[in-house]
């Protein structure tokens, strides 16, 4: 887990210096490994924007993380709905 955090940090530093397909791709993959799928999707979309000529492998990764992000968000919404319906979030 820590190696992925470090990968995110290094890629972020690199992207501050210069926007690159490699930087967005590596950071997106690291976010995916950390199960931060929304961040992974965002970075892979940026990589695709930079490489419109041959983004097939990036688009494949993007589809995987996009599906995982949707599943994760759906699960989070389900948990939040249960939390609110139980009255726990209302100060009871």
What features would you describe in this structure?
With 92 residues, this protein is mainly α. The chain has one domain (2-90): Tetratricopeptide repeat domain (Serine Threonine Protein Phosphatase 5, Tetratricopeptide repeat). The chain has four helices and no strands. The chain has helices spanning 2-17, 21-33, 37-50, 56-85. The chain is elongated. The termini are far apart. The model has no long low-confidence stretch (mean pLDDT 88).
Q: What is shown here, in short?
A:
With 92 residues, the chain is mostly helical.
Strand and helix layout:
Blueprint lengths: L1 H16 L3 H13 L3 H14 L5 H30 L7
Helix pairs in contact: 1-2, 2-3, 3-4
Structure summary, number of beta strands: 0
Helix/strand order, N-terminal first? HHHH
What is the C-alpha radius of gyration, as a whole number of Å?
A: 16 Å
Instruction: Please indicate the count of domains.
Output: 1
Low-confidence stretches: none
Report the major sheet: none
Inertia-based shape: elongated
CATH secondary-structure class: Mainly Alpha
CATH architecture: Alpha Horseshoe
Beta-strand share of residues: under 5%
Keywords summarizing the entry:
92 residues, mainly alpha, Serine Threonine Protein Phosphatase 5, Tetratricopeptide repeat
């Amino acid at each position: 887990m820590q190696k992925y955090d470090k990968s995110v940090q290094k890629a972020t530093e690199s992207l501050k210096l210069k926007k690159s397909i490699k930087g967005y791709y590596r950071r997106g993959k690291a976010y995916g490994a950390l199960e931060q799928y929304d961040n992974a999707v965002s970075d892979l979309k940026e990589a695709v924007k930079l490489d419109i000529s041959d983004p097939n492998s990036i688009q494949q990764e993007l589809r995987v993380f996009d599906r995982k992000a949707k599943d994760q968000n759906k699960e989070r919404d389900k948990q939040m709905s249960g939390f609110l319906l139980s009255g726990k979030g209302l100060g009871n």
